[in-house]
Design a protein that fits this description.
- With 632 residues, the protein is of the alpha+beta class.
- The chain has 4 domains: 146 residues, Jelly Rolls (Sandwich), CATH 2.60.120.10; 118 residues, CBS-domain, CATH 3.10.580.10; 196 residues, Beta Polymerase, domain 2 (2-Layer Sandwich), CATH 3.30.460; 143 residues.
- Helix content is 50%, strand content 15%.
- Strands 1-8-3-6 form a 4-stranded antiparallel sheet.
- Helix 6 packs across helix 10, helix 15 crosses helix 17 and helix 21 packs antiparallel against helix 25.
Length: 632
């Protein structure tokens, strides 16, 4: 296909923009234009190597590899102006990955021999191609290294990748060097700190006093506590820049035999680092925290390990983990913690009088939990003869102990009381079946709310068969109930994506969140709800949103074609939410879901708009599907 349009396209597309017009006129004679419909597999892993360089004219493709466990691992995505196939015919007789059209895609194909000729004869063309290829290979290699270290050890590696500014305690407690020893001691005791930085008359750090100084210079010497604290302070202040790596701080501490290091930025004191901080850093890989949890046999022993879970999220973010990988890892660690708390509680109370299953729901049930949220749990126990009160008494005390223990581990009680400590949510299997049946048969607003919460339940401990029986009952009861589906769909349409009339992102009109939008309610929520509804329709037992979207891809005629796009939108929105909450915690605030679109980059705002447009399209599709049955 030889046209002026083809030459014009190549002239603005690297690396062909490096070729003169005569060469372009020649190579287009070897080009053909091919079309790939959305979903078509263009190249198959372990299939024949490519015979052409494919330059994407319009559309997009994804590049992935399939593991031995048949899991798809995304390598890259390519869009208009990018190419694929070069690595395949340069280095291999077989294709190393699979390439699938994400949407209707057209490609210019340039023959292998022509490309090899250009690589040999045109330096600029060759340099661009090889640099691009090497960058992709390096990115893949680093990603593999990073992914391996996320779950296995990684503590020593973190010393070389983390900077002091990210680890140091920001709120440094200071005092004048002229106060008394007693006053300094009182400050340290009330603030629960082991080191107090002392300032001179100009407000500059002049020294510090530690617990060790108080023991060695005051208590053991019988010194008067009314004396000036500056007289006993350590005047040698070792400092480090906040951009220094943690291993450099470790070397300084070892060299000078100190346990506290001042961190400065632009000449000003910005934080303080202790040897304990470095020890914690080396012990915050997911695997080490999980091992620490497994080794405990008391709630008091579990609490410090639980406190490290948020730190894992921080480290995973810095290591470049995807949102879905972060939530999967955190869910695994949280599950281990929860199981351990249950085991400890059981050991204290003795064997339960009936088999039971502890279930969780909400974000925990969907394995989408990030920074710690409140407790969402319930108990299903086996059906017993009438008058069997022993189980009622046991699980009443058991659930109260669990509520208190989880609170001590950093999970506050649910403000809406959706917990096993509420008698309504610790019931025999038969009662749970009645709950579900009533909610489905009489879909009042309250019933729909209960369904949205509890239908994402997931078992974590005990007799898991009880949960599976309830799941099977739910699947049978709800599958063909169109009226219930319509009621669920109507509730989902209440939370629209924040798009203005002209396609811009809008925020709250007034109040404390004015100008910001709720990414959970108006972005993630509709996708979660749509995936849940489709899973119930198709009798899919997964609770994870991404897993549900994968399962309904080939089963559901309406949501299925949007499944891939919704998965990508969900991943992006979740990543945005996690990073937003991380930044709030870093600034000393409480994490929320309200994001200011003006603080996002141009690319993020563009992706956000596209994600919201997709959500709006999905909601319109549901509205058309259920039509007259829908109660708005």
């Amino acid at each position: 296909m030889i046209t002026k349009e083809t030459v014009a396209f190549l002239k603005r597309t690297p690396p062909f923009d490096r070729l003169d017009s005569g060469i372009l006129d020649t190579i287009v004679k070897d080009m053909t234009l091919v079309f790939h419909p959305k979903g078509e597999t263009i190249v198959s892993q372990s299939g024949p190597a490519a015979e052409h360089l494919n330059i994407i004219r319009s559309g997009a493709v994804k590049v992935f590899v399939r593991t031995n466990e048949e899991e798809e691992v995304l390598v890259d995505s390519r869009t208009s102006g990018e190419f694929f196939g070069l690595r395949s015919f340069l280095f291999s007789d077989l294709s190393q990955d699979t390439i699938v059209a994400l949407e209707d895609t057209s490609c210019y194909q340039l023959g292998k021999e022509t490309v090899l000729g250009l690589l040999k004869t045109n330096a600029a063309f060759s340099e661009f191609c090889l640099k691009t290829l090497m960058k992709r290979l390096m990115d893949m290699a680093y990603k593999e290294i990073r992914d391996r270290t996320l779950l296995y050890g990684g503590g020593d590696k973190l010393l070389f990748t983390n900077i002091l500014g990210d680890l140091a305690t920001r709120n440094v407690i200071t005092a004048s060097e002229d106060i008394s020893i007693r006053e300094a001691t009182e400050i340290m005791a009330s603030r629960n700190i082991s080191c107090l930085v002392l300032l001179d008359a100009l407000g500059l750090p002049s020294g510090m006093i530690t617990d060790k100084d108080l023991r060695n210079k005051v208590v053991s010497k019988g010194r008067d506590s009314a004396g000036r604290v500056g007289d006993i302070m350590s005047v040698t202040l070792i400092k480090a820049e906040e951009q220094d790596r943690c291993f450099e701080a470790l070397l300084k501490m070892m060299r000078y035999n100190i346990h506290h290091l001042l961190v400065v930025g632009k000449g000003e004191l910005t934080g303080i680092l202790t040897s304990h901080d470095l020890m914690i850093l080396q012990g915050t890989s997911p695997l080490s925290v999980a091992r620490e949890i497994e080794s405990q046999d008391t709630i008091d022993g579990l609490a410090p390990a639980a406190a490290k879970i948020n730190r894992i999220i921080t480290i995973l973010i810095r290591e470049g983990a995807t949102a879905s990988n972060i939530t999967r890892i955190i869910s695994e660690v949280n599950d281990r913690l929860l199981k351990k708390v249950l085991e400890i509680t059981e050991s204290r109370m003795g064997r339960p009088p009936a088999s039971y299953c502890w279930i969780i729901f909400g974000s925990e049930g969907r394995k989408e939990q990030t920074f710690k949220t409140d407790q969402d749990n319930a108990i299903i126990y086996e059906d017993l003869p009438e008058g069997s009160d022993e189980a009622t008494r046991y699980f009443s005390e058991f659930s109260e102990r669990m509520k208190d223990s989880l609170a001590r581990c950093g999970f506050p009680p649910c403000s809406a009381n959706y917990m096993a400590s509420n008698p309504q949510w610790r019931q025999p299997l038969g009662v749970w079946k009645k709950y579900f049946s009533n909610w489905i048969q009489k879909p009042t607003p309250e019933s729909i709310l209960q369904s949205l919460i509890f239908f994402d339940f997931r078992p974590v401990h005990g007799d898991l068969l009880l949960a599976e029986k309830l799941r099977a009952f739910l699947g049978h009861a709800v599958r063909d109930n169109k009226l219930f589906h319509a009621h669920m769909a109507a509730v989902m349409l209440n939370n629209r994506p924040p798009l203005g009339f002209f396609g811009g992102i809008t925020g709250e009109k007034k109040g404390i969140h004015q100008g910001r939008f709720n990414i959970k309610l108006n972005g993630l929520g509709p996708i979660i709800d749509a995936a849940r509804l489709s899973a119930l329709e198709q009798k899919v037992y997964h609770t994870s949103t991404l897993d549900r979207l994968t399962e309904v891809k080939d089963r559901c005629r309406d949501l299925g074609p949007l499944s891939n796009d919704l998965q990508q939108a969900f991943e992006f929105l979740m990543s945005l939410r996690i990073r937003h909450q991380y930044q709030q915690l870093q600034a000393g605030g409480e994490p929320d879901n309200f994001i200011d679109p003006q603080r996002l980059g141009t690319l993020e705002r563009t992706m956000l708009k596209e994600s919201f447009k997709l959500v709006a399209r999905m909601q319109e599709m549901l509205k058309q599907k259920y039509g007259p049955l829908m109660v708005m």
